[in-house]
């Protein structure tokens, strides 16, 4: 047996039409994944990504739909079929700059992430891995009560039971992504019992259309003070995510990888 052996099964990318997700899909194909499911809100937007992968011999399935739809996870598992799940890179999410409804933001970033994790957990292959996209913003405190609540398991009623702790859209983003980090940490043992891994990845300031809508004096100051005073590239983020799904990262689980150019460390975090 080879020292490093990739998990069997299908790879899944959510938000696959976006700048980060599309690069993740491309690099998974280059890493040898021969079966990939691409998910995004609008299936038509996945066409170009799928075409490039298929040209390289990858079998591609497409799933369009809102990840907060209760039917989304069952539709995803229908696409998986009898196959095991070898890799998941969950990039889908929204920021307050492009989505101004704090309640919906919580549902998309948090409730949907937990639903996807619940769906894939029993289907993970031996050696499989899931990477959940969090954010550098998840490290910024809101309040001791809110921080603790969002680091705890999601209540039975979902994020709706936590809305009173969230003052605005910015806080909703920070807290929802804090919760994503907590999910990866909390789920590590359950995934490990299947011989699989789960972790989160926290992007910093990345050169994407989403970032263009978030430029303000605060982000400019953060960038100028970072260890690397430039925006990250989507392909750099994708390379880190795909590495985490690889057998070479086989002893990494239950933690968060900060891909932020040293912005947080420069803030003493």
From TrEMBL:
InterPro entries per UniProt: NAD(P)-bd_dom_sf (IPR036291), SDR_fam (IPR002347)
Keyword line: Oxidoreductase
Entry annotated with the keyword Oxidoreductase: yes
Entry superkingdom: Bacteria
Keyword Isomerase belongs to the record: no
UniProt similarity note: Belongs to the short-chain dehydrogenases/reductases (SDR) family.
Protein known as: SDR family oxidoreductase
Species of provenance: Novosphingobium anseongense
Classification lineage: Bacteria, Pseudomonadati, Pseudomonadota, Alphaproteobacteria, Sphingomonadales
């Amino acid at each position: 047996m080879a020292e490093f052996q990739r998990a069997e099964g299908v790879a899944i990318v959510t938000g696959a039409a976006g700048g980060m997700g599309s690069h993740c899909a491309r690099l998974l194909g280059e890493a040898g994944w021969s079966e990939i499911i691409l998910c995004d809100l609008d299936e038509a937007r996945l066409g170009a990504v799928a075409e490039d992968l298929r040209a390289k011999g990858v079998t591609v399935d497409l799933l369009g739909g809102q990840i907060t739809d209760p039917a989304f996870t069952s539709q995803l598992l229908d696409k998986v079929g009898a196959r095991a799940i070898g890799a998941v890179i969950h990039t889908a999410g929204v920021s307050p700059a492009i989505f101004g409804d704090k309640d919906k933001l919580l549902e998309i970033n948090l409730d949907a992430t937990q639903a996807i994790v619940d769906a894939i957990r029993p289907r993970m292959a031996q050696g499989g891995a899931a990477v959940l996209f969090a954010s550098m913003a998840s490290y910024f405190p809101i309040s001791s009560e809110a921080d603790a609540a969002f680091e705890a398991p999601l209540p039975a009623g979902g994020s709706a039971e936590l809305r009173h702790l969230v003052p605005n859209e910015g806080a909703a983003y920070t807290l929802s992504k804090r919760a994503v980090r907590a999910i990866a940490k909390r789920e590590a043992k359950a995934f490990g019992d299947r011989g699989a891994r789960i972790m989160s990845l926290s992007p910093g300031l990345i050169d994407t259309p989403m970032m263009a809508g978030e430029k303000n004096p605060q982000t400019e100051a953060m960038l100028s003070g970072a260890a690397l005073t430039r925006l990250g590239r989507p392909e750099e983020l994708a390379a880190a995510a795909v590495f985490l799904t690889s057998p070479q990262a086989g002893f990494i689980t239950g933690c968060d990888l900060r891909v932020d150019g040293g912005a947080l460390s420069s803030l003493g975090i």
